[in-house]
Write a structure and sequence with these properties.
There is one protein chain. By secondary structure, this protein is α/β, with parallel strands linked by helices. The protein folds into two domains: 69 residues, 60s Ribosomal Protein L30, Chain: A (2-Layer Sandwich); 168 residues, Alpha/beta knot, CATH 3.40.1280. The strands form two sheets. Strands 7-6-5-9-8-10 form a six-stranded parallel sheet, with helices on both faces. Strand 5, helix 5 and strand 6 form a beta-alpha-beta unit. The protein starts with 7 loop residues before the first strand and ends with a helix.
Length: 252
């Protein structure tokens, strides 16, 4: 039976050893006001490796990582993060135009896991997420993806806006999901594409929205005005797949 604290490595020595061993770490949680002894050394190591450090309330930390956390806990990642170059390499290896999904501050691990699962099913070459204010590769994401995390590279970047600029320089068209966008099925998605899905509450952020070449919307005929983020994303990913399959059939 899995522990309720399975995502967390609690205690100073345990966290230090996890970092020293090179284990995949999603982020470090530190109790507010705790900066004594080895914690400062651990923070310095995290900065060197680009691992986010977040302050939380002492009781919150205890509820997440258990009573023996000593003011610090590491959130374990279920898999090493990839780089954006790795995602391009995955597309090149298949001799296909890049097909990426960019998640802008998507915080629900079940949504992220579902998107990774659908990305695998539709042939996407990878997922891009921000280091902060986003779900990471925890066991909850692994379970929600039904193990698809093993097959879909996930890159974690410091700045989504800058990353979108980089993708555009490398020939990728950016398509954001927005209720006021163009009709999803009338847009050509056969070339190099990145589908941007926003957070559950706010959608795509303003600066990210400004980097989108196009915005796409889905028809909503019922009483509810929006879809779950992973469901809406799934519809668009399958549209990309459908168009690419038609292009392949035409070439044959």
């Amino acid at each position: 039976m899995a522990s309720e604290f399975e995502d967390y490595i609690a205690g100073r020595n345990a966290v230090n050893e996890a970092l020293r061993s090179g284990r995949a770490i999603d982020k470090i949680l530190i109790a507010k006001g705790e900066r004594s002894g080895s914690i400062n050394v651990i923070i310095a190591q995290c900065r060197e490796r680009g691992i986010p450090v977040k302050e939380v309330d002492f009781r919150k930390l205890e509820s997440l990582a258990g009573p023996h956390h000593q003011g610090i806990a590491a959130v374990a990642a279920c898999k090493e993060y990839a780089t954006v170059d790795d995602l391009f390499a995955a597309a090149e290896a298949k001799n296909e135009p890049p097909f990426f999904v960019v998640c802008d501050e998507l915080e629900d691990p079940h949504n992220l896991g579902a998107i990774i699962r659908t990305a695998d099913a539709t042939g996407a070459h990878g997922i891009i997420i921000p280091k902060r204010r986003s779900a990471g590769l925890t066991s909850a994401v692994y379970k929600a993806s039904a193990g698809a995390v093993e097959y879909v590279p996930v890159a974690r970047v410091s700045n989504i806006t800058e990353t979108l600029r980089e993708l555009k320089k490398r020939g990728v068209w950016i398509y954001g999901m927005d209720m006021k966008g163009e009709a999803w099925c009338s847009t050509d998605l056969r070339g190099p594409v990145a589908i941007v899905v926003g957070s559950e509450g706010k959608g795509i952020g303003r600066l990210v929205h400004e980097q989108c070449d196009f915005t796409l919307s889905l028809p909503m005929l019922g009483s509810i005005s929006s879809l779950n983020a992973s469901v809406a994303c799934g519809v668009l990913l399958y549209e990309v797949l459908r168009q690419r399959q038609r292009l392949t059939a035409f070439k044959k």
